[in-house]
Amino acid sequence: MTATLEPEASIDADVATPEFEAAREQQKRRQGLFMALPAYLYLFVFFVIPLVIVIVYSFATRTRFGTELSGWNIDSYRRLGDPLVRDILLRSTTLAVITTLICLLLAYPFAYYMSTRSEKTRNLMLVFVMIPFWTNFLVRNYAWRVILGSDGPYSRLSEAIGFGEGRLLFTNVAVILGLVYGFLPFMILPLYAAIERIDGRLLEASRDLYASGFQSFRHVLLPLSMPGVVAGSILVFVPSLGAYVTPAILGGAKTTLLGSYIVTQFLSARDWPFGAALSFVLMAVMLTSTIVYFRKGGRTL
Amino acid sequence: MSGITEPRSTTKRVLQANIWLVYLFFYAPILVLVIYSFSDSRNVGAWGGFTLDWYRDFGDSSAAKGALSNSLKIAVVSTIVAVVLGTISALALERFTFRGKQVFDALLYLPIIIPDVTMAVMLLLFFSEAANIFGFSKGFATITLSHIAFSISFVSIVVRARLAGMDDKLEEAAVDLYATKWQAFRHVTLPLIMPGIIGGALLAFTLSLDDVVITEFVTGPGWTTLPVYVFGLIRKGVTPLINAISVVMLVASMGLVALSLLTDRARGESAEIE
Amino acid sequence: MTGARCERFSLGEGSTGGFVVTAAVDIKGVTKRFDDVYAVDDIDLSIADGEFFAMLGPSGCGKTTTLRMIAGLEFPTMGSLKIFGEEVGTLPPNKRPVNTVFQNYALFPHMSVLDNVSFGLRMNKVDKTTAAKKAHELIELVQLSGMEKRRPSQLSGGQQQRVALARALVNEPKVLLLDEPLGALDLKLRQEMQGELKSLQRELGVSFVFVTHDQEEALTMADRIAVMHNGKLLQVGTPEDIYERPANRFVADFIGQTNLLDAVVEDDDMIILENGTRLMAPNPLPPGTKVAMSLRPEAVDIGPRGTVPAEHQKTSLEGVVESMTYLGHALDYTVKIGWIDLEVRADAVHAEQRFQPGDEVAVWWDRTSDWVVAD
Q1: Fewer CB within 10 Å, N- or C-terminus of chain C?
Q2: What CATH number does the domain located at A81-298 have?
Q3: Do C91 and A18 touch (CB under 8 A)?
Q4: pTM of whole model > 0.90?
């Protein structure tokens, strides 16, 4: 009678009792659940159930006609040990790690310098990081295809300098370039958020206590900005590992990565159980790294 | 809080160089793409004089226009649904306690951190199974439902951040001043979280217009969105038409950035009531 | 205020009972439990119409929870809560004839001053012209005329405080609740606002119930004070009662600065200190009761040994000055009396003699200025 959304729902009041209080508390909880329910149900149907189906499929058998949901086995997981698959996993991981490191190397000094600026400059700099962040991902990758393409600006430039017609397109380097380009804002933003929060007096105090510039970075700035480093690394590493668009546009036939390999299983090879197993592994890597991050006291991504 | 003080000059010069390098890295490719989209040459990497032909081609291409209109329809519908569901769930999580709240909270984070490809696989298998049972054809509905599934989380998190930054005493003050719960929401909470809702909506809209992988997986015959259409073209080979379409998409993205910046400006100062 | 609400609340016990004076707020056996913690533990409290009433206590004592229960922002676990004779314990805030001035004001940041002040009237469906007229009156009353169009963020702290007052008072509440209303202001402004609040309350004749942790504020402003600690109501009384005749050790210690000397009751007139010293201290407690004697530093006189006036012989102690702090208008001495340090405040202007650490002194006081509280 009190916590409802109806505008006028009052009757004469009674003396408060523990029962009334409990009923009201329960009513409030029910209202909260009721409000969460639509999104909850939506995610249950369109996320949890699909997730379960993926797991179920990963244990199914592939037949000539498609997938047979019987004869459960772990063959799909066993195939993860095949040399070909191992190569792909290794290559994907290596590329994702290199991408993450390059992003860190570029983003950390960037975010640090940004937080030393005045509020106005900081906001302006932030805007110019946000713009690529909001810009269509496909378009951004495509831009590199144009630049690196034959007869494009890159090859002309390298010819002019005298390196001959260098060829980057369809190599791992091109893929890394595309991934760094695509995900760099994901690294800068959490890093900036973490560094900006740090009280500048702590750095002054460390310098006052005879730390060199590097020492105060190593012992004060870096540890305090660690949540940002980890969050940014996860945000770059996970999508790099599962990247599909970038290698498809910039990579070559010899540089198949995990994301593209999974897609192949569904759209051309029609080996759904194996594709499901691969996606489940990718998901597991993602989940583990996030859980570790939150366990270690990380706040938000 | 006192800000971080300025580094010394040598270090500073290196840091400054890094800033310009990063910005050059961000913007040079975009600029190159824009320039070449006006180049009158079949070779996309070469300059052949100014032309608007490729934009005209885009206007003449019924396939591209159809894909664009599909993209917009899907983005509008999925954004509206995601904003409603995401906002209500943000209110529930930020202002109420209820059974299963922690599970719900974790569930909301998952679509954000899961890689596109995995989500695409999940939804492909789900809709294939569902189509076997219920017998529907994939297309507009399946794409829209999928886009909502990942957009809800983004909207919810953005709105929640806004709600968390809002003094909940304001709602108490409203009911103390004779507002019903609904009136308190309508006159106090809603206008104050509006920048968050708009921000969430813009994010959902952008993500929907951005998506390639999930759409490609859950679409049916005859149904394509602009990014999927462009992606298909790129894989076949690079043409100047793609440059033009890309620049159009780029301009659309910029428009959304501008909008989001404007709502950011309005933070804390939203429209007056009544 | 809508007609319906006025009618309902004017039909309380008081008006039908003829001469019975109805309390503005009447609390009986009210308890509020949060999980296992008793935030408010079985309190009885009656606040008269037109009274300036303070609830005082350290943070977490339950004073704010009590205020929030009167407002309806919190519901009691049990107990009766009446406003002008009408039970309101289970009514939501929007159904109660009270309004609140929130801590930090909780002004709506997206509305102008005028919209803030007229909010309650608009929610009560008062027509727009009347609402605007009344809002303007109140804005004038709190001396903010000309600032109607400003946003709260464009106002100073003191001005925001006035808007909060106007926003609550425009609804003509039967009781105005104030949660640490001056807490966010600096000292000078706070003292100014104390006077203004007091005169505003007198002018309107409405009961003000305000919560504070600042005892000086409570003493200067309130007609009566309730002291709370750990969810319990320790004492209700006038500022003089609370300051001069504290009900127990906590109140004595919390209100103002005091020396508390542990002792045992000998008879009606005498108590015995821990070291065996007998002191005159009238009390109604049975012999053998463990007590503490409260002695305000400013009530104690200090002088060289042997200069204790005859009439103070039985209310005096001897000791050694341990330290002296110069305060300008006063001198604070710490005098070591064997087992305990006694704080003594001497008037700097009228002091005949100043003492240095190490000086042997005597201290004495008037027999009416000590006060014995049960332990």
Answers
A1: C
A2: 1.10.3720.10
A3: no
A4: no
Question: In angstroms, rounded to a whole number, what is the distance separating the alpha carbons of residues B212 and C277?
Answer: 91
From chain A, the residues in CB contact with B11 under 8 A are 213
**Which chain B residues are Cβ-neighbours of C107 within 8 angstroms?**
173
**What confidence tens digit (pLDDT) does each residue in A82-129 have?**
998 999 999 999 999 999 999 999 999 999 999 988 889 998 998 899
Distances in whole angstroms, Cα of residue C330 to Cα of each of A81, C324, C346: 87, 10, 6
Distance CA A184, CA A216 (A): 26
C281-303 average pLDDT score: 89
Any idea of the CA torsion for B98, B101, B103, B106, to the nearest 10 degrees? 170
Cβ C19 vs Cβ C190: under 8 Å: no
How far CA A248 is from CA of A86, A102, B234, B235, C63, in Å, comes to: 20, 21, 9, 7, 66
Residue C19 has pLDDT above 60, yes or no: no
Distance CA A260, CA B187 (A): 50
Sign of the alpha-carbon dihedral angle for C119, C125, C128, C132: negative
* A residues 4-63 lying closer than 8 A (beta carbon) to C: 10, 12-18, 20-21, 24
Taking chain B (274 residues) in runs of 10, the rounded mean pLDDT of each run is 64 91 93 88 76 87 92 97 97 92 90 90 94 88 96 94 91 96 95 92 93 93 91 86 89 85 62 32
For residue C86, the chain A residues in CB contact (below 8 A) are 13
Residue B257 pLDDT: 82
Encode burial over B117-145: b for 16+ CB neighbours within 10 A, e otherwise: bbbbbbbbbbbbbbeeeeeeebbbbbbbb
Close Cβ partners of A167 (under 8 Å, ≥ 6 residues apart) = A150, A155
Instruction: List the CATH code of the domain at B61-273.
Output: 1.10.3720.10
What are the E-state strand segments in A193-239? none
Cβ pair A275, A59 in contact under 8 A: no
Element (H, E) at A196: helix A172-197
ipTM of the complex as predicted:
0.88
CB contact under 8 A, B117 and A33: no
- Rounded-to-integer distance, Cα B95 and Cα B89, Å: 10
How do strand C52-56 and strand C224-229 relate by DSSP bridges?
parallel
d(CA B134, CA C132): 60
CA distance C180 to chain B (A): 14
Q: Is A143 helix (H, G, I), strand (E, B) or coil?
A: helix
**Closest Cα to residue A286, out of A240, A234, A247, A236?**
A234
In this complex, which of C108, C124, C168 lies closest to B170 when CB atoms are compared? C108
Q: What is the DSSP letter of A79?
A: G
Across chain C, mean pLDDT equals: 89
Pick B178's closest partner by Cβ from C108, C112, C124.
C124
Q: Tell me the helix, strand and coil percentages in chain A, rounded to 5.
A: 75, 0, 25
String of b and e for A144-169 (b: at least 16 CB within 10 Å)? Answer: bbbbbbeebbbbeeeeeeeeeeeebb
Domain boundaries, chain A: 81-298
Give the domain ranges of chain B.
Answer: 61-273
CB pairs under 8 A between A and B: 290
Q: Is C17 exposed, middle or buried (0-12, 13-18, 19+ CB in 10 A)?
A: exposed
In the predicted structure, residue C38 carries a pLDDT above the cut 80: yes
pLDDT in tens, A22-48: 999 999 999 999 999 999 999 999 999
In this structure, are residues A33 and B89 in contact, taking their beta carbons and an 8 Å threshold? no
Q: How far apart are CA C90 and CA C373, in angstroms?
A: 38
Look-up of token digits 């709240």:
B101
The pLDDT assigned to A166 comes to: 66
Between the alpha carbon of residue B3 and those of residues B166, C291, C342, the distances in Å are 25, 55, 47
